[in-house]
Amino acid sequence: MTGDYHAKSILILTEAIQNKQPSVLANVVDVKGVSPAKIGTLIVLVDETTTAGTVGVGKLEEAIVEDARLSLSDGLPYLTHYSHTEKGPVAVGALCGGKVRPFIQPFLPPPQLILSSADTRALA
User: Whose C-alpha in 15, 68, 76, 97 is 20 to 30 A from the C-alpha of 91?
Assistant: First the structure.
């Protein structure tokens, strides 16, 4: 089942990149303790609204998607971490006590350079 999620998510990411749609891949790279997220699970965000795949459930996934949106807006990759606790700076409000580190990588269309001139000599 995980393979199907991965394949569909990667296909959606590939199509988004080919169509020059801003997108983000969040991939869990480390897990300590108890967590619904497993190493290698991933989620894709396309155009800030569409997601494919899953990195867990509930508050953890919400936090990762929120950071994926930040990555989409500033164009920077992040190695983030979350704690399955109710309190603390990286807490996601869960009780299982594990820690999760996803790598969040944006894929943005290349910038376009548009030259314009009102001077007809520039065209010659």
Answer: 76
Instruction: Give the DSSP per-residue string, 55-102.
Output: SSSHHHHHHHHHHHHHHHHH---EE--EESSSSSTTB-S-SS--EEEE
> What whole-number distance in Å separates Cα of residue 65 and Cα of residue 91?
15
* pLDDT tens digit sequence for 4-16: 768 899 999 999 9
The per-residue b/e assignment along 31-40, b for 16 or more CB within 10 angstroms, e otherwise, is beeebbbeee
The answer to whether 82 and 90 have CB atoms below 8 angstroms apart is yes
**DSSP letter string, 7-54:** HHHHHHHHHHHHTT--EEEEEEEEEESS-S--TT-EEEEETTTEEEEE
